[in-house]
Amino acid sequence: MEFPDTPSKYIPSFILGFFDGDGNVWMGDIHKKRKNPITVIQTSFTSASTYFLKGLHVELKSLGIKGRFIYNIKNKDCARFTLSVKDSLKLHKIMYNESYSSFCLIRKKKV
Question: Alpha-carbon distance 98 to 91, whole Å?
Answer without folding.
Answer: 14
